[in-house]
Amino acid sequence: MIYLNNAATSFPKPSSVHQAVIEYLQNPPLQQERMGYSKSSSDRVWKCREKLAKFFGTQHPERIIFTSGSTEALNLAIFGLDLQSGHVITTAIEHNSVIRPLKKLEYSHIIELTIVPCDSAGYVDPADIAQAIRPNTKAIVFNHCSNVTGSCINISSVTEIANAKKIPVLVDVSQSAGTLAIDIEKDHIDLLAFTGHKSLYGLPGIGGLYIAPEIHLKPLKVGGTGIKSELLEQPQDMPIYYESGTLNLPGIVSLAAGIDFVMEQGIEEIHHRKYTLIRLLYEELARMPEVRLIGNLSQEPTLLSFQIQGKEPGDVAYMLDTCFDIAVRSGLHCAPLIHQALGTYPRGSIRASPSYFTTEEEIMTLIHAIQKIVTL
Amino acid sequence: MKILQITDVPDCFNTSLTKEILFDQPVTKDYIQYLGQHGQLDYYAEFPRPFYKLQKSGYYILQGVEGTDTARVILDRTRVQEALQNLTEMLIGFIVIDHSISC
Ligand SMILES: Cc1ncc(COP(=O)(O)O)c(C=O)c1O
Questions:
Q1: Which of helix, strand or coil describes residue A87?
Q2: What is the domain extent for residue B26?
Q3: Which residue of A86, A145, A173, A331 pairs with A152 in a disulfide if CB–CB is 3.0 to 4.6 A?
Q4: What pLDDT, on the 0 to 100 scale, is given for residue B14?
Q5: For ligand 1, atom 7, which residue shows the shortest CA distance?
Q6: Residue B9 falls within a domain, yes or no?
Q7: Is ipTM > 0.95 here?
Q8: Cβ distance A98 to A284 under 8 Å?
Q9: Contact between A244 and A116 (Cβ < 8 Å)
């Protein structure tokens, strides 16, 4: 199978990730203490926090909270902030893991919500975000990089404006982490939600949220923390304040190995490889009059969405899968608002998303398959 | 040929009902030709795995690959029962269905 759905979840994982998980399963931590807070070099959870802190550019590993993925991280941030009677700004390129929690707050009359539009290529102008700010704006939530077009919002151009007005900024880096450089301190990010199973090459079910020291969130869950068990209320220490329950240790171990892999290859090299494949695909599909390309190459995206005239995206994906053994993703990609702006709503698009391991030959096979499908 | 199982295929949309059909044996060229009597049939024999698609306008789209024992049907949400009945009746003409299709 040619797997081109890495924006959903990456496959294959580096062999070092396989080895780390197997090693964990053969040699799990059986000591009495709970892992993750001891700051000892033998604590695999703490080591992963330290790697994440280094990777994302923060001095505060203890402020990285493990979650089941971006969805939980975004829920923790959105429902944890004090947004009561406030105004929140988000954008049209968001995933449902941002849209739905915010809409829930809006429908409950807890917040007023402004959704900053994007243009017909999926770009959001940071100046439009700045313009949407009101005196009662309590948060700005945005997707660094669209999972439909690959278009990105420059983080610092939003945080600069928001920091000046002391508005917390929550950035969803689900698509960009592992492909684009992200620096929490340089970019003054207050809250950063990431997932482990896409370009960080970890297992599904692991991700996290960075919470800046000046930000206080209500925990999403409370319960056992493995330490301070005599307390009947949630201990306030970081990170356990937000991490009740047993952590996803195999996921954390896989994520640590995935980050090592990304750091070894280098973000720039990874981005260059993926973008080179997307440029090839874009240029070849642009020669086919029946193909409508969505978005453009101006921001060097690492995924590509398209439609084929007269064909349902779902049918094309099904044909690619069943007849050519190529896995892509069709539909709305859990991001309905951007499809409205792109004119691809409600049927959506076909999305191809390579990984570091995808070859040029595989992209050529996809191109040849599409050549056949368009002539039908 | 019998239908062994019909399962839901979750997708992004709320406007169509996609189901996966499991037959008790692989789909043959005869079967695909038979489908052609019941709607608009597209058959792509030149694909690495030959593909067929039967469209019964306003009711359903049935599609799959020759030589495999599964197919996909997309039912029109506005008339699910009618579309299912129509599909069932059409299939009975070629295959024996051993249990009723429910939605
Ligand atoms: C932009 C974006 N945000 C959030 C998510 C949700 O991530 P997770 O699967 O880790 O919950 C995704 C995953 O598809 C995504 O692409």
A1: strand
A2: 3-91
A3: A145
A4: 52
A5: A70
A6: yes
A7: no
A8: no
A9: no
Name the residue facing B51 among A323, A333, A334 (closest C-beta).
A323
d(CA A191, CA A170): 4
Look at strands B60-65 and B51-56 and give their pairing: antiparallel
Q: How many Å separate Cα B62 from the centre of its chain?
A: 4
Three-class SS string for A19-47?
A: HHHHHHHHCCCCCCCCCCCCCCCCCHHHH
Q: Does residue B54 register a pLDDT over 50?
A: yes
- The confidence score (pLDDT) of residue B8 equals 83
Q: Taking chain A (376 residues) in consecutive chunks of 10 residues, what is each chunk's mean pLDDT?
A: 98 98 92 64 88 98 98 98 98 98 98 97 97 98 98 98 97 98 98 98 98 97 88 91 94 98 98 98 98 97 97 91 96 94 93 98 98 90
Across chain B, what does the average pLDDT equal? 82
How near does any CA of chain B get to the CA of A322, in Å?
A: 7
Ligand 1 centroid to Cα of residue B61, in Å, is 31
Q: Six-digit token pair at B101?
A: 């299709």
> DSSP string of A91-133?
ETT--HHHHHHHHHHHHTTSEEEEEE---TTS---HHHHHHH-
The confidence band for B90, taking pLDDT boundaries of 50, 70 and 90, is confident
Residue B18 confidence class, pLDDT cut points 50, 70, 90 = confident
Chain B CB contacts of A330 under 8 Å are 12
Per-residue 3-state assignment (H helix, E strand, C coil) for A164-218: HCCCCEEEECCCCECCECCCCCCCCCCEEEEECCCCCCCCCCCEEEEECCCCCCC
Residue B99 resides in a domain: no
Whether B54 maps to a domain, the answer reads: yes
Q: At what angle do helices A249-265 and A44-56 cross, to 10 degrees?
A: 40
Query: In DSSP terms, which residues pair with A194 in a beta bridge?
Result: A208
Q: Please give the tally of structural domains in chain B.
A: 1
Instruction: State whether A334 and B64 contact (CB < 8 Å).
Output: no
Q: Tell me the residue type at B55.
A: Q
pLDDT band at B103 (very low <50, low <70, confident <90, very high): very low
Within a domain: B70: yes
Ligand 1 pocket check for A358: Cβ under 6 Å: no
| Distant-in-sequence, close-in-space partners of A260: CB < 8 Å, separation ≥ 6 | A16, A51
Report whether A106 contacts A130 (CB < 8 A): no
Burial class of residue A245 (count of CB atoms within 10 Å of its CB; 0-12, 13-18, 19+): exposed
pLDDT at site A25: 95
B12 near A8, Cβ under 8 Å? no
Q: What is the CATH number of the domain that holds B33?
A: 3.30.310
